[in-house]
Amino acid sequence: MLFGLAIGKMHMMLMLGRREQPSPEEIARQVDRAVEIFLRGTAPRPAGPG
Which of 11, 21, 34, 38 is least enclosed by beta carbons within 10 angstroms? Predict the structure, then answer.
């Protein structure tokens, strides 16, 4: 899941020739966002009522 979030759309667009090579900064931003989403999704949730 994390790998797909990190490179999914960017990789597909590159392979289809629909975009130029991303800058190192753009890659870092994409990876940072993917890690944030992944960690938020796997964080423990507070116990609900019952």
Answer: 21
**Per-residue pLDDT, 15:** 92
Give the span between the Cα atoms of 3 and 18, in whole angstroms.
Answer: 21
For 2, which DSSP code?
H
Give average pLDDT by consecutive 10-residue segment, the chain, 50 residues.
82 92 93 91 83
Does 26 fall in a domain?
A: yes
The domain total for the chain is: 1
Residue 46 lies in a domain: no
d(CA 17, CA 9): 12
- Is 37:5 a contact under the CB 8 Å cutoff? yes
